[in-house]
Amino acid sequence: MQLKILLPSRIFAAITHVKRIVAETATGQYGFLPQRLDCTAALVPGILSYETTDADVVYIAIDQGVMVKTGEIVVVSVRNAIGGAHLGKLHEAVDQEFKLLSENEKNVKQVMAKMESSFMLRLLRFQEH
């Protein structure tokens, strides 16, 4: 298989000769082999692993995203990814960095909701006058 990991701003990795891929979804871990039927999967923050014919298992910490398998091509599109570290350190990275980003996004969404409601109230007051 061919595996391509995409981030919003760049291609994180493009790997050929992949024998198997294991990814985490909201309902558990799933393995993908070359003969598996075409499918899509919503990924949660966690560890994606793959094995090539030339190397051992490689682990990459990924943020939430989507995986699409079409024939021999697997495309993973995620917001963030970290590779090249020991498996234990990747789990720490997922806990620290990705969950921190999620908290920051929640805070931004709360602020945006407050700004939108304030804008709507001012607009209503303006229309009344």
From TrEMBL:
Bilayer-crossing regions: none
Which keywords does this Swiss-Prot/TrEMBL entry list?
ATP synthesis, CF(1)
* Matches recorded under InterPro entries: Alt_ATP_synth_F1_esu (IPR024037), ATP_synth_F1_dsu/esu_N (IPR020546), ATPsynth_dsu/esu_N (IPR036771)
* Occurrences of domain ATP synthase F1 complex delta/epsilon subunit N-terminal (ranges): 1-81
One GO BP annotation here? proton motive force-driven ATP synthesis
List the GO cellular component terms: proton-transporting ATP synthase complex
Q: What is this protein called?
A: F0F1 ATP synthase subunit epsilon
Q: Provide the taxonomic classification.
A: Bacteria, Pseudomonadati, Bacteroidota, Sphingobacteriia, Sphingobacteriales
